[in-house]
Design brief:
Bound molecules: 6-O-phosphono-beta-D-fructofuranose
Largest sheet: 7 strands, mixed
Strand order of the largest sheet: 3-2-1-4-5-10-11
CATH topology of the largest domain: Rossmann fold
CATH architecture of the largest domain: 3-Layer(aba) Sandwich
Structural class: alpha/beta
CATH class of the largest domain: Alpha Beta
Strand content: 15-25%
């Protein structure tokens, strides 16, 4: 087994609250174990452009409460090419780096796996960092909890004004192809309906649901639309409903990137710390091409391949069943 002596850490893809506590844990766990650590700026772009710096214990002081990522992040197309990967590899070798910790989502892991198969002498451990909560092998991804809490805070405020004006709001939330944020936020805010990519809601059913609510003395209604919902987007849905539910004043709010920012929750600070700690220990133990994740409150390793190929995310059945029951 090749002994690791110098590791690099990077964040890639969409930022997620909790990445900073995770970077801190990676850096300090590595230093504690006598390893050298290099921080890579802007994800894979920094590997290709050789934009890296040596990190010390104090490089990660006072970052636990910060959203975003001190290493910065990017979505890097050149890393998908053979030339881009070769340049990254040469830069890594020239610095004597033999282990890599990559924090990100499925795009990040796809890059990591390809790179690792091409250059197996560089050990790689992935950490699931995405607000979308859509990776197989970790019940929760880093940033999902904070993002959901941010969404809840925003929707609670919208509920106040919706109620004051007796309005119907359609609120679009992030998640790409995952309805995880929409479902949790919907349950937490008492949404009248939740439109999810995983479970198509027919527009006629939605209209009936909202009309029933009005007959049942509801004065305001909130419909959460996950961005990956397949009904044609939040504006089209709102238009179709407005035509039929004429006695409601209809408004649309797209929460957008505010969902990605903000100070990480307690859950994400602890999760980030646990995953960072575990990732470095996995590298020291000789692991590679694996993801560290949370399963039944224990840290477990899953192969990157499995995390990607079997990542069809299943929303909790009991939560799905509750939606209509609790919103009557
Ligand atoms: O993957 C995280 C995420 O925020 C998704 O929920 C969203 O679809 C996407 O990133 C937005 O990406 P960008 O910031 O590049 O527009």
């Amino acid at each position: 087994m090749h002994k690791i002596s110098k590791i690099a850490v990077l964040t890639s893809g969409g930022d997620a609250p909790g990445m900073n506590p995770c970077i801190r844990a990676v850096v300090r766990t590595a230093i504690f174990n006598g390893l050298n650590v290099v921080g890579v700026r802007q994800g894979y772009k920094g590997l290709i452009e050789n934009d890296m710096y040596d990190m010390e214990t104090r490089s990660v002081s006072n970052i636990l409460s910060l959203g975003g990522t001190i290493l910065k992040t990017a979505r890097c197309l050149p890393f998908r090419t053979d030339e881009g990967m070769e340049t990254a590899y040469q830069n890594i070798k020239a610095r004597g780096i033999d282990g890599l910790v990559v924090i990100g989502g499925d795009g990040t892991f796809t890059g990591a796996l390809r790179f690792s198969k091409k250059y197996p002498d560089i050990a790689i451990i992935g950490i699931p960092g995405t607000i979308d909560n859509d990776l197989y092998g970790s019940t929760y991804t880093l940033g999902f909890d904070t993002a959901t809490n941010t969404v809840i805070e925003a929707i609670d405020k919208i509920r106040d004004t919706a109620d004051a004006h007796d309005r119907l709001f359609f609120i679009e939330v992030m998640g790409r192809d995952s309805g995880a944020i929409a479902l949790r936020a919907g349950i937490s805010c008492g949404a009248e309906a939740i439109m999810l990519p995983e479970k198509l809601t027919a527009i006629e059913d939605l209209i009936k649901n909202l009309k029933d609510g009005q007959s049942n003395k509801k004065s305001s209604s909130i419909v959460i639309v996950a961005e990956g919902d397949k009904n044609g987007g939040v504006y089209d849905i709102a238009k179709a409903v407005q035509k039929e539910v004429t006695n409601y004043d209809v408004k649309v709010t797209i929460l957008g990137h505010l969902q990605r920012g903000g100070s990480p929750s307690s859950f994400d600070r602890v999760l980030g710390s646990r995953l960072g700690f575990a990732a470095v220990n996995a590298l020291i133990a000789g692991e590679t091409q694996k993801m560290v994740g949370l399963q039944a409150n224990h840290i477990k390793l899953t192969s990157l391949e499995e995390a990607l190929t079997e990542h069809e995310f299943k929303l909790e059945e009991d939560l799905l069943q509750m939606v209509d029951v609790l919103a009557i």
